[in-house]
Amino acid sequence: MLRVLMVSKACYVAEYRKKLRALVEAGDIELGLVVPPFWRFGRDVAPFEPGDDEGYRVFILPPRFNGRVHLHYYPGLGRVLAEFKPDLVHLDEEPYDLVTFHGVRLARRVGATALFFTWQNMLNPIPPPFSWFQRAVFAGVAGAIAGNPEAEQVLRRRGFTGPVAVIPQFGVDPGLFRPEPRPRSGPFRVGFVGRLVPEKGADWLLEAMAGLEGDWELVIVGGFGSDPAVRRQIEARLRELGGRWRLLGPFASGQMPEFYRSIDVLVVPSRTGRRWKEQFGRVIVEAQACGVPVVGSDSGEVPRTIGDGGIVVPEGDVLGLRGAIRRLMLDPTLRQILGRLGRSQAAARFSHRAIAEQTRRFYHRLVLSRA
Asked: Which residues touch 275 (CB under 8 Å, ≥6 apart)?
């Protein structure tokens, strides 16, 4: 029996912890989870969401510097390590974060193997002390999980030589995210999930919709960014659409399946920035699991995640974006075909069970290599 302790701030979300249930189903892993009681997002607080955590232990530890992604850490982690006695410590954070550096040092003290996770798919400069943290982490771990192929390439270019598995951080539950069994009526509904900011391509989407003829409605889950000037620009573009849009605000994870089942297409028109591009596109997988085709830009991992379950257009190509949406609006058969392909892909590649199985195998590989 392999004893694994995962340290993950993201696992305050109950839906994400379904991967942990899948990890222990094989019966060869005894799992513990260190997670905060809540996580701060500026002035907002996201509490730990109750869920079905049977089969593994949950250690709720308050982090120091809660809300600081790169600077938080758990003062009580050493006590948990001494109690749980893991063979492997899975630090579900970037290698340049303080929490990862702290966790690797403590794991070494108790003789445990360690690994980290990374989404970072751009070779951005890392200043001290974070570059120092990364150097120590690279030297102290047995391996790493990269959320996408470009993240693995970035690790190699930064000098990491250990084993790397390319596995998304979390999957989707195809039983919860499933297609609507009955056909819907009403206008063609175009969905957008995320902040209405330039990096998410909100301006491109609104421009594309402004020139789209036919009976349609744009439905948005999310809110505005923090830049007042950008908000004014987005609001002006929304007014150009007349009454053909609805802004629903942010949704909890449990509300998302119903939203996806209410739309005909999800649009992910992301824009590559100087320091950021799409690293996965979880909303793509969720929509596809619900049988909804996706139209996305070719930013970062969007094309790879969409796969056969949608249409990819070049970044910034408003006419191409509008044309892809129009094509799906006018062709229900194509929507059904892409919806079925996306659903099949989501279940096979991106389910919690599929991701957990890949992760479980990598755990055993790392521990055996250190034996």
From this structure: 122, 124
